Amino acid sequence: MASTLLARARELRKSVKSLQDLELLKLFKSEINFELSSNHFKNAPRGSPEEFVVDSGSPHTKDVILRRKFHSGEELAISAILGPPNYENDLVFPRDVFMKVCLKKPALSSILQFDCEVYEETSKGSEFDIHNAYYLRSPTCLTPSIYRGPLFSKLDEELQDALKEYLVAKGIGENLTNFLLHYLHNREQQQYVNWLKKGEAFVAKNGPSSQFLETHSS
Fold this sequence. Notes:
Layout: H1 2-37, E1 53-54, E2 63-69, E3 75-85, E4 95-104, E5 111-121, E6 125-136, H2 157-169, H3 174-206, H4 210-216
Antiparallel strand pairs: 1-2, 2-3, 3-4, 4-5, 5-6
Helix pairs in contact: 1-3
């Protein structure tokens, strides 16, 4: 009698576990279908990297690297990554982009570094602000403990405007900032869908048996 009850308890636990796995599998499928059928960024301008080369890197990385080399030998590198979500404003892109710009003159070890933020403008696509600007004598000056100069906001306003115009002249304009916003958000969505598909495959393989799925998934 006791062994029969124990066996029935085991079967009940298996059935409950299978039902839970089945519901989880349905959730994965539903979320995947929703993401694939939704075009969250269809109304946003795609922009273009223009003269910049996008480093392919790993599809799992969070940032994107862009490089450009001018005829003069000057090199420009951009590292961009999504910032934290902000759902207070009704915008297409829920995140701003943190953008680090580094410029290096040929035959010199010094670097000009700009810390910027790219954000969506409801009426005209996107824009960017400079938060910090540094003159670094060498790459070793990237150490955080080394003093890099006054805050950008403390600089003369005409100098602030001139530095931004300088970056725009180097190709960091609206077309590029539109590209960064769209590219990074779109890639994040693709990474999320890939994660969902891995979760779905794991549950399907290690969860309920195929016979149970055939019986209950219709």
